[in-house]
Recover the amino acids of this structure.
């Protein structure tokens, strides 16, 4: 039982790390867009690709950055919430539901990040990779808790 709690704690810390990485990435995107007046949209040959924001493209750029940040930070936050719920769940079905919510958020983050790898997705790649590893830790914790479940109900 102690092993399951430590795995759940590691899972939660990893999702919080992924959320922190996403917040840093989002902050970088927001600063370069709104403070420095540049729309950074990816990387090529180890150089950031940025273009200056003009009055013509400012509304579209602001809307695009806002949508990307809200969607990605919401998914990273949802994964942290799911990991927290899985660590607190006492019943097997609640643990499975929380883990499936974590899987849904992580797979969606990974899909969006990989599909936009040459644009804003590049900045969220570290957090997405941490979430991918977190899925493995969460699965081990879930399987161990399922294995111990029948023996605890026999008493």
């Amino acid at each position: 039982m102690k092993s399951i709690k430590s795995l759940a704690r590691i899972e939660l810390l990893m999702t919080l790390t992924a959320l922190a990485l996403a917040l840093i990435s989002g902050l970088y995107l927001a600063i370069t867009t709104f403070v420095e007046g540049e729309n950074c949209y990816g990387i090529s040959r180890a150089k950031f690709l940025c273009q200056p924001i003009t009055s013509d493209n400012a509304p579209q750029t602001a809307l695009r950055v806002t949508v990307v940040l809200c969607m990605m930070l919401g998914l990273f936050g949802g994964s942290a919430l799911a990991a927290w719920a899985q660590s607190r769940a006492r019943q097997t079905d609640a643990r499975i539901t929380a883990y499936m919510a974590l899987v849904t958020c992580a797979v969606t983050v990974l899909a969006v990040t990989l599909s936009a790898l040459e644009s804003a997705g590049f900045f969220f790649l570290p957090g997405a990779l941490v979430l991918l590893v977190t899925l493995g830790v969460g699965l081990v914790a879930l399987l161990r808790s399922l294995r111990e479940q029948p023996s605890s109900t026999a008493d």
About this structure: The radius of gyration is 19 Å.
